[in-house]
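dude i think i finally got it to work??
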Amino acid sequence: MSKNTNTKAGPVTTKDAKGNVIKTEAAKGKRGKRELDPNDPFMRQTIHVERLENPKRKGSKAAKRFALYKNGMTVLQYLQAGGTRGDVNWDSQHEHIKLTAAKKS
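look at this
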């Protein structure tokens, strides 16, 4: 049994019944960007910043994203501002931020 060693995804081409190319799109990586669902309970959680100083390395992309956190903002607002889900999970696990469930209205 052979392994497929090709890890690069090529362009995605759509053809009609006669074989003519209709459109060509760049292929998404394994993990495409997820849509931000405002009804997702994770997205509605409120962020509370626990650190007064930015714990990330000065000048790094992570430090810039950490600076986006504001007390009282939701995870959805943070992601829309340019943060990542990975940041939220990492910072929560390492107690840089605290997440609280959204209040039901």
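The chain has a mean pLDDT of 83.
im so relieved honestly
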